[in-house]
Amino acid sequence: MKQLILSAALIAASLATAGAQTAKTSGNPVFKGWYADPEGAVLDGQYWIFPTYSAPYDEQTFMDAFSSPDLVTWTKHPHVIDKKGVSWAKRAMWAPAIIHANKKYYLFFGANDVHQGEVGGIGVATADRPEGPYKDALGKPLINDIVNGAQPIDQFVFRDDDGKYYMYYGGWGHCNMVRLSDDLLSIVPFDDGTTYREVTPKNYVEGPFMLKRKGKYYFMWSEGGWGGPDYCVAYAIADSPFGPFERVGKILQQDPAIATGAGHHSVIQVPGKDEYYIVYHRRPLTETAANSRETCIDRLYFDKDGHIVPVKMTNEGVKAVKNPKRK
Ligand code: FUB
Question: Which atom of ligand 1 approaches the CA of 207 most closely?
Fold first, then answer.
């Protein structure tokens, strides 16, 4: 009888373990620490997140990155870039954007919280591996000037299907787009000869992001103040990378049951699948300090008409997905 009870207990325990394993999720936040403005990507057969280190501006002198085989287990790669290797960067290293091109990894970043007449803005660094170390490619900012009222920060680099690279960027309520050269190290004119085009949608504040799906251009951005609870993300759908970007509505915002200040996002597409994950920062309900921002992940769905379904923020995060390397 004793033996029978023992076997039953063992079976129950192993079933519980199996259940726990299948139910394993990333949890939110996906990794420890205050991190904001996360840029998600698939690089070299792994999922990656490159966030801003969320701290007072004078302490934002480096960036960490995180890699994962499945969106659930994350490994930290400390100091993939450091101001020590960027002669003109002093502080406020913000909002990385990562892209693989020309057999290199390009890390675009903002630095110095630049104002008119100061040195700073958007820089670009390169490395041979996603985890760096990233070296400043130009020895100066790629964009230093305030054009069309846009602070040069919060860049996103988008490669269209025709191979052209565009960069959307801008703080202070203005969004510009520029075309990048094939080596991604300079700005080249559009077909009409201009170099900076303002594409600011209604309510835009900062944090632009572009996703192309089924031939449509989904342009997204953050609204509100990043230091407060109302920060959020909205979107537009266009037929061209140039817009016009007519605001459709909000897709991410605070939830009194989960967190406040949800915004500055990016989207990871599982390679080869119509499956999407939104990576964003939010502020725990216990916090009010501006920099208490943590990086989270949740599913992003499209409805049958191609609209984005407002995101349901969770504490569980997401289930494991297939390693992008495996076929
Ligand atoms: O993290 C620094 C700044 O906060 C970003 O550049 C803004 O978009 C906001 O998220």
Answer: 8
Catalytic residue among 39, 113, 206, 298: 206
Give ligand 1 pocket residues (Cβ under 6 A): 36-37, 52, 94-95, 110, 153-154, 206-207, 226, 264
User: Mean pLDDT of successive 10-residue segments in the chain (327 residues)?
Assistant: 47 42 83 98 98 98 98 98 98 98 98 98 98 98 98 98 98 98 98 97 98 98 98 98 98 98 98 97 98 98 98 98 76
Task: Give the pTM.
Answer: 0.93
Count how many domains the chain has. 1
Token pair, residue 75, equals: 């490994």
Ligand 1 centre and the CA of 291: distance in Å? 10
Q: What is the DSSP string of 23-53?
A: T-B--SSSSSS-EEEEEEEEETTEEEEEEEE
Return the CATH number at 215.
Answer: 2.115.10.20
CA of 38 to the centre of ligand 1 (A): 10
Is residue 206 a part of any domain in this protein? Answer: yes
Residue 320: inside a domain: no
Mutate to test the pocket of ligand 1, among 35, 37, 223 (most ligand atoms within 8 A of CB): 37
Contact between 219 and 228 (Cβ < 8 Å): no
Q: Please tell me the predicted confidence (pLDDT) of residue 327.
A: 52
Q: 23 alpha carbon to ligand 1 midpoint, in Å?
A: 33
* 298 among known catalytic residues: no
What whole-number distance in Å separates Cα of residue 206 and Cα of residue 169? 8
Does any domain span residue 305?
A: no
37 is catalytic: yes
In degrees, rounded to 5, the angle at the alpha carbon of residue 68 between the alpha carbons of residues 227 and 153 is 35
Give the domain range for residue 113. 32-300
